[in-house]
Amino acid sequence: MRNPVSLLTACLLALVLIAAQNVSAASLPEFTELATKCGPAVVNINTEKTTRAAGPEDFFGEMFRNMPPGFERFFEPFGRGGGKRPHVNKQKSLGSGFLISADGYIVTNFHVVDGADVIRVTLDEKAADGKTVKATLVGSDEETDLALLKIEVKEELPYLKFGNSDNLKVGEWVLAIGNPFGLDHSVTAGILSAKGRRINAGAFDNFLQTDASINPGNSGGPLINMNGEVIGINTAIIASGQGIGFAIPSNMASDIINQVRSGKKVSRGWLGIVIQDVDEPTAQALGLPDHKGAMVVSVQPGQPAEKAGMKDGDIIRKIDGQSVEDRDELLRIVASKKPGTEAKVEVLREGAAKTLTVKLGDRGSNLESGVSAVPGSESDKSEATLGLTVRPLKPEEAKQLDISGGVVILDIDQEKPAASTDLRPGDVIVKANMKPVKTVQELSNIVKKEGVKRGAVLLQINRRGDLIFRTVELAQK
After folding, report:
1. What does CATH list as the number for 33-266?
2. Considering the entire predicted model, what is its pTM?
3. Which of 289, 311, 290 is nearest to 300 (CA)?
């Protein structure tokens, strides 16, 4: 016969376990209703663009370019043929997006549709029988990696609304819906892991971090709060990690999208200065109470900051009463303001506080590098072979970019070789075939002596402070 005390103890333990399970289950969120409500507004995006097929120079670099004339014929069986066959590929990619209006406006990432010749959007079956339609790119903003598309359909479509990402708290539940690896309308859940993450993605690093599973193909899809509002646009992952994804905050995205949708050029405030963080040794050397703020390295001539009396060495601490923690925060605060508005900028100069009134310029008309791609100078010249209109860098521009010199691209002839390469007005050519370029004549000499002879010229470009290489193929005579 069983001990009644032991039996009672076992029953009580069972009741405790059942109660604990019920409490645990009750504490977990229910996502089925949220997925059903939001899923139909999420779309799959397929793009197609034409790219140049890789040639030997892409694999062998300078080794191939330095070979004697005629050596390239060895590679003809692999697609090289002196122009006999077109060397192009059809490159396809997958991404996600979401509807923000019943008449077919769609938000996605810029990198999902960048350079696409054709953009196709597949709707959810509950939205429009899963039909696939062509989309038009309304506008985009590369700096924040955002793009707006438009599709034309007869029926009204389900759509999502933006929420307030500033109100989010770390630890809140979030839902991601997208097209990872082509698996349409995949739903994953997690929490908000962090806010204000910087991942070196650009001037406006300010990402939400989540452990909701995000994979290639999720880009452009929504990150949704428990109210069914979009609080982020899924954008990036750390490939070597798990449960580490990043999304553009909705408050940043909605402002940009509204500007694009209304047909306006995306505009941001601009001071016209070069800045850096204030580290502890600098703060100690200057006798500062802490190492907060942004230090002015140089003030660009004729720009808003110089007109307001800002000087090299000033430490910017506040803008319109808002504290500036570091360089990145200063960029975000200034960029969030409209060009033409007046801002009260509090600086520390030689230990004393000083307030300057700056009438902000337009970042859109000034590259982050400070190089303006505006033609009209007497020194503007055309490099006819490439099809580029260029001018030498001004000394202050070269100083800001921390380079000895170069020529800035002002315009690109769409009928010449440069038009088929990823070159842009504002790019600074610093080297051609690995030789320094400081004047238009130096660039022309290299193109004529080496580029025409070899059928291509390798350009080293400084684009907003980053160095990249671009090869321009030339028609051989």
Report:
1. 2.40.10.120
2. 0.63
3. 311
